[in-house]
Design goal:
alpha+beta; 4-stranded mixed β-sheet; 105 residues; 44% helix; 4 strands; Double Stranded RNA Binding Domain; RHF-like
């Protein structure tokens, strides 16, 4: 997985970069092949915002999250992207099952 972490008028520390990398490793369980991810972190007082884009299997998924702390915003962002990737994976798997069931009948 290729992960880019950027800050918008914010310096991204090593701790934030490491935390985001650890959390985004959870998304790797959906697909075996590598995919690209990009996170942009910013502060809109009083909230911390995180925007993420994941490109996998020719699809681009985008999510936004805001929370009182940057770590919480990253957690919410990863949860949203995880649900989106799970939906994409389920559609791919269900589509294959539907064809095989029709062929058997």
């Amino acid at each position: 997985m290729n992960l880019e972490v950027h800050g918008h008028q914010l310096e991204v520390t090593d701790a934030l970069r490491t935390y985001a990398n650890e959390k985004f490793q959870r998304l790797c369980r959906h697909f075996e092949h590598p995919f690209d991810s990009r996170i942009q972190l910013s502060i809109d007082k009083p909230h911390h915002c995180a925007e993420g884009t994941v490109t996998a299997n020719g699809r681009t998924l985008h999510a936004e999250a805001s929370a009182p702390t940057m770590y919480a915003a990253i957690d919410i962002l990863v949860d949203k992207l995880d649900r989106s990737l799970q939906k994409v994976k389920d559609r791919m798997v269900d589509h294959g099952r539907g064809d095989s069931v029709r062929q058997q009948l």
